[in-house]
C-alpha cells in the first residue's frame, strides 16, 4: 500500500509516517515545509505544496492507494477569530481533495477530525460517537462539516473513510507555540524557567492520549475496511491542575501557575468513549500518562541541550 500523508511533517503526521514505515507501507508526504526536529527520512517521497493548491493535487495523488489528512490552518483558539478564513483554509481545500481523489481513483481516506470540539459541551460522560455534534468553535464546526462531506462522498462515490476524533494528543516532536498542546507547552516553559499560564481555575478536564497510540490507531484504520467516525482518546479524564502536578513531580520543578480568565470556547469537560475503536480495530492506548509525560520531558530536555 502506498499512502499519501498530508501534513506528514507535523507533530502527529511525523509519528503516523513512522508507524506506516514500521509496518512496511510506502509513504509520500505532502506538507508546506520540512519537519522541524529531524532531517528528511530515507525512502519517503516528499512533496512540498499547500493543500489549497488543488491544481497540483493530481500529481501528489499519482499512484496512491490511501490518504491520511492531518492538515489544518487553525486551532480551536484561533478559528473563531476569522471563521471565513477557517472555511477557506480547511473546508474548501478538503472538498477539493475529495474531488481529486475521485478523479485519481484513490478511494481510501483517514481524516483527523476532533474529539475535543465536534461535540460541544457534552451531555454524556464519556462521550460516544453518536453524541449530537454541537461545536462551539469554528474549528469544530469545520471538522464536523468535513465529516458530513466524507459521508456524502461515501454514499455517492464509494469512498472508504475513517474520521478519527482525537482527544488531546501529546508527545515528542510537538511544536511549542502556546496555541495547542497543554502538556508540551508546559514542559517547554518549565525547561525555559518561564511561568505556566492556566486559563480558568485549572478544573477543566481533558482526555490526554499519547501520539504513538494515535498513530497506531491511524495505521489500523488505514489497513481496515471499516468506515465511520471513531473516538481516539484514553477514555480517562485529567484536569489541568492534575497535569501541572504530574509535571511538577516529573521535572522536579515546583510549578506555581499564573491563572488567567477562562475562555468561552473552552468546554468544561471532555472525556471520550473509545469502545467503538477498540471493538472495530482491536485498539487500546498503551502509553500511561505519567510515562508519556516523562518521555516528552526527556525529549524537551534533549532539544534544549542540542
TrEMBL record:
Name of one Pfam family that matches: Epimerase
SUPFAM superfamilies named in the record: NAD(P)-binding Rossmann-fold domains
InterPro entries: Epimerase_deHydtase, Lipid_A_modif_metabolic_enz, NAD(P)-bd_dom_sf
The NAD-dependent epimerase/dehydratase domain, residue ranges: 3-233
Superkingdom of origin organism: Bacteria
PANTHER family in the cross-refs: BIFUNCTIONAL POLYMYXIN RESISTANCE PROTEIN ARNA, UDP-D-APIOSE_UDP-D-XYLOSE SYNTHASE 2
Name the record gives this protein: NAD-dependent epimerase/dehydratase
Species name: Roseibium aggregatum (strain ATCC 25650 / DSM 13394 / JCM 20685 / NBRC 16684 / NCIMB 2208 / IAM 12614 / B1) (Stappia aggregata)
